[in-house]
Amino acid sequence: RFRGRLPLRPPSPSVSDPPVFQLDSCCSPRSLRSVEDRRNYTFVQGDVCDPSLLDRLFSAHHVDVVFHLAARTHVEASYQNPASFQRVNVEGTRTLLSAAQRAQHRPRRFLYISTDEVYGAGADRAFDECSPLRPANPYAVSKAAAENLVRSYWHRYQLPVIITRSNNIYGPRQHSEKVIPRFLSLLQQNNKCTIQGTAPKSRHFLFVSDAIAAFLLLLEKGAVGEVYNVGSSWEVPILGLAQQLVKMVRNVPDSEVGEWLEFVPDRPQVELRYPISSEKLRRLGWGAQVSWAEGIRQTVRWYQDNQDFWADQPTRPPPPEGAGPPAD
To answer: Which SUPFAM superfamilies is this protein grouped with (predicted)?
Structure first.
């Protein structure tokens, strides 16, 4: 089974060597060490926008299932370089869909992993899968556009696609561009947590094992052509998250927590929250098993035990103009 997350170990002899492609800054081969020796595992370092490489992979490996997770996801960076998000998230998705459609052995399932951000900001009502899409930042726009491509391949070519829209996934090994590892890395380096703006932003957090369970369930029971929200009931204010991590990492009393917080200018477009309903997925038998208390405990412990995991890409305080960590 070839999963759509590129890069994946050097290709087997049956696949001609692709051009050298540099790993994205948020990727680390160390994340894959636990599966390196498995017989059903192959790592291919390549570009998801490279049609020749994808054609060779589909031909050599007779792919049954694609989990397409390859994407640029840092909202802050999407404002600075939206073209790169369009290339990877939209053109990369089109290239992968085209290769799957052309393959002599066509995949039996193509799962596209999208985001709750395609709905735009929500207030009191949770979004379900029929809610209109109102993406409000370049990252979300690119994911919504990619969703349209995925649906078009279902309608035109009957490629058996399923789309998921999930809350913020967190857990061990996540790169420090995301808010939880960002805060942890800053605190471990004796720096303050930098919080964008003072608006009451919050996010729903889903532990990584619960997200994986949802994807595997949809592979087995999901209806082709459908969209499924993958959401969590644990909504956490970003300020409260920073305060909680300060207490866990720095072990300081409540009276000293504020000394480890710094407010910096907000991003151009602010979305306070992204509430979604996962009732459609729950009817298939899924439910989040890891509570917020347990998930954040496991995550903090992992980062404390593996402080050098991202050592070649150290987290630094924000520059003077002050772009803090993303809240999503």
So the answer is: NAD(P)-binding Rossmann-fold domains
pLDDT tens sequence across 255-301: 999 999 999 887 777 778 889 999 999 999 999 999 999 999 999 99
Active site residue: 112, 119, 139, 153, which one?
A: 139
Per DSSP, the residues of 49-99 read: T-HHHHHHHHHHHT--EEEE------HHHHHH-HHHHIIIIIIHHHHHHHH
Residue 317 contacts by C-beta under 8 Å, 6 or more apart in sequence? Answer: 186, 191, 192, 194
Structure tokens at 238: 């970003």
Q: Name the active-site residue from 47, 50, 117, 147.
A: 117
Question: What 3-state class would DSSP assign to 221?
Answer: helix
- Terminal Cα distance for the chain, rounded: 30
Which tokens sit at 52?
Answer: 């020749």
* Rounded distance between C-alpha atoms, residue 19 and residue 162, angstroms: 31
Residues 45-76 as b or e (16 or more Cβ within 10 Å = b): bbbbbbeebbebbbbbbebeebbbbbbbbbbb
Active site residue 305: no
User: Has 124 been annotated as catalytic?
Assistant: no
Q: Is 116 considered catalytic here? A: yes
Distance CA 167, CA 233 (A): 10
- Type of residue found at 98: S
116, 147, 210, 328: the catalytic one is 116
